[in-house]
Amino acid sequence: MNESFAAELWRATADIYAAILQHPFVTGLADGSLPRESFEFYVLQDALYLRKYAQALAAVSSRAAVPAETEMFARHAAGIVAVEMSLHESLLADLDIDPRAGDVAEEAPTTLAYTSYLLAATGGSYGEGVGAVLPCYWIYWEVGKHLLERGSPDRRYQRWIDTYAGEEFGDEAREVIAVTDRLGQEISALERARIHRHFRATSRYEWMFWDMGFRREAWPV
């Protein structure tokens, strides 16, 4: 049986996913050792990231040739604003951070680099856009499931885990994986290579984003 295109992409980035699972930010969510300050910094940066990610999904939606996929990505973009932003606002409030802090906060270097890459990639072909946005869905879902098996002694970290391990988020990830597999049956070798490149780049940015949060990354000058 031939390997699906999505499985091919995942296999090609197995090294990155393994590094993510070993990162102290991720392991610290499960054992409770993640410093609160790092989680606070991450949640605020993630709220900034999600605004741009929603824009990237809207751009992908506008390039879809299949009406059902146009609707799907538009729905996901709206869902990020409604569901994930709600999670982050509640976490910020629980951490005694004004939920409006994101309106004035500055993007860390990695946040700006990642969102800039996403918006540039989603300005290309539909397939390139799908390849660029997929890792955020898939990696968060896989990490959520991985951490759910372990649980967390910290109720805030457990709430984060429950969100990304949940069926609703998993359903969205599976929808985009299915689109990726469909594209794999009709794209050229050149397009396939471009999608591989974007998928690997944004998978790397996922590792970098957690590392950024752990280090509470600041601009050097």
Key structural traits:
10 helices, about 220 residues, Heme Oxygenase, Chain A, mainly alpha
- Our estimate of the beta-strand percent is under 5%
**Rg (C-alpha, Å):** 17 Å
Q: What is the architecture at the second tier of CATH?
A: Up-down Bundle
Determine the structural class based on helices, strands and strand pairing. Answer: mainly alpha
Overall helicity: over 70%
Distance between the termini: 53 Å
Structure description:
The protein has 221 residues and is an all-alpha fold. The protein has a single domain, classed as Heme Oxygenase, Chain A (Up-down Bundle), CATH 1.20.910. The chain has helices spanning 5-12, 14-22, 24-31, 36-63, 67-94, 109-121, 126-148, 155-165, 167-184, 189-215. Helix 2 (14-22) packs parallel to helix 10 (189-215), helix 4 (36-63) packs antiparallel against helix 7 and helix 7 (126-148) packs across helix 10 (189-215).
Question: Helices and strands in order, then pairings?
Answer:
Layout: H1 5-12, H2 14-22, H3 24-31, H4 36-63, H5 67-94, H6 109-121, H7 126-148, H8 155-165, H9 167-184, H10 189-215
Helix pairs in contact: 2-10, 4-5, 4-6, 4-7, 4-10, 6-10, 7-8, 7-9, 7-10
